[in-house]
Amino acid sequence: MASQLFTPLKIGPVEVPNRIAISPMCMYSADDGSASDFHIQHLSRFGMSGAGLAVMEATAVTREGRISPGCLGLYSQANEDALARVIAIAKKFALPGFKLGIQLCHAGRKASTPYPWDRGAALTPEKGAWQTVAPSPIAFEKDGAAPLELTNAQIEDIINGFGEAAKRAVRAGLDVIEIHAAHGYLIHQFLSPVSNQRTDDWGGSPEKRMRFAVAVAKAVRDSAPSHIALGARINSTDFLDEGLQVEDAIAVAKALRDHGFDYVCVSSGNIVPGGRPALGPGFNVERAARIKRETGLVTRTVGFIAGPKHAEDVVSTGGVDQVALARAFLDDSNWGWHAAEALGHPFTIPPQYQRVKAGSWPGAKETRAFT
After folding, report:
1. How many structural domains are present in the chain?
2. Which CATH number characterizes residue 148's domain?
3. Is the confidence at residue 365, as pLDDT, over 80?
4. What is the pLDDT of residues 126-154, one digit of tens each?
5. Is 174 within the bounds of a domain?
6. 185 catalytic per annotation
7. Could you report the per-residue pLDDT of 264-280, keeping only the tens digit for each?
8. What's the CA angle centered on 83, arms 6 and 76, to 5 degrees?
9. Smallest Cα–Cα separation from 40: which of 99, 97, 88, 107?
10. CA 52 to chain centre
11. What pLDDT score was predicted for residue 56?
12. Alpha helix (H) ranges present in the chain?
């Protein structure tokens, strides 16, 4: 039987050669938001990995919106120029049909954090810490510093920042733009009643809590030409009784669809520390399939999907269009090649690497991640 995982997928105006996507993964290797030489090798290897699409890491639309001092940004001309250089090189050596996207983000109350390898040592002003902002002055961590509540003028500035960053992304040469509305970052903070306790037009009812997400979506849609695919990573549940549920995610997805968005990537949790219980492989698939059924949007999902047979099952019988993998590609940058072999699907790898195809050298079986 032919592999569904390796069939093309149309995402709005963009076609990708298969159903494999590489999730955004923070690399903490930027300089004041500007991509570095690290990003050249990081993204270039993904272009040859066998994935049809790679989405670059969460990229801040303002300097204060970065998660850490080392996170990517698209808030300056220097950021745009550095990113354009990286994209040009990554695309030059990519496999045919490969598409590259970016995830635009504002971290809100989860900004100004240390590098993950420095956790336990708070980011101090001497190390570059800055004041965080959020819909409401509620700290993310119990003993953490409270963010400042955003004013109406600041909210409008951030919305404009998303629009300007989208323009920069297009000029830099990207094919897909995704907004980050999940994992406890600013758009999600507005959406969730756990973090948004405003009583003005930006909070209260679900419709008012959704207003910021819709305004961002409109700003991005107005800034991106019609040949760019637009999407959003959304939360299908906060895993809290008082938080967002799948019905809320469906409402958000419908609003994004109605404002010209082409897809959603369905995730969950992280509106509070430890806000995602230990769950098994593919734990978002069922909710993602429901969102697809009720919205008609192209739907991708993520969450402990690591093996090719599991990925194949998700897209062939799980009710979603595309799977996203993260650490699996960090662990095996040729995951797509090996998945094709495991599923018996013909696959062309770069000519420089033809000599490592299965059956072409005696060590192939020992080096394969999957059997």
Report:
1. 1
2. 3.20.20.70
3. no
4. 888 999 999 999 999 988 889 999 999 99
5. yes
6. yes
7. 999 999 999 987 776 89
8. 140
9. 88
10. 15
11. 98
12. 37-47, 77-92, 152-172, 186-191, 206-209, 211-223, 246-258, 285-295, 308-317, 327-331, 335-342, 364-367
For helices 211-223 and 246-258, what crossing angle results, to 10°? 30
Give CA–CA dist 45/56, Å, rounded: 13
Catalytic-labelled residue, pool 28, 75, 185, 263: 185
Residues in contact with 35: Cβ distance below 8 Å, sequence separation at least 6, in sequence order? 72, 79, 82, 83, 85, 86
The answer to whether position 159 is within a domain reads: yes
Has residue 179 been placed in a domain? yes
- What's the average model confidence in pLDDT over 11-38? 98
With bands split at pLDDT 50, 70 and 90, how would you rate the model's confidence at 371? Answer: very low
Does residue 148 sit within a domain? yes
Amino acid identity of 80? E
Contact 336, 50 (CB under 8 A): yes
- Angstrom distance (rounded) from CA 183 to CA 107: 9
Domain span including residue 230? 9-331
pLDDT at 1: 65
Distance CA 242, CA 367 (A): 47
CA distance 64 to 248: 28
Give the pair of three-digit tokens for residue 330: 């960090």
What is the rounded average pLDDT for all residues in the chain?
95
- pLDDT tens per residue, range 307-339: 999 999 999 999 999 999 999 999 999 999 999
Neighbours of 16 (CB within 10 A): 22
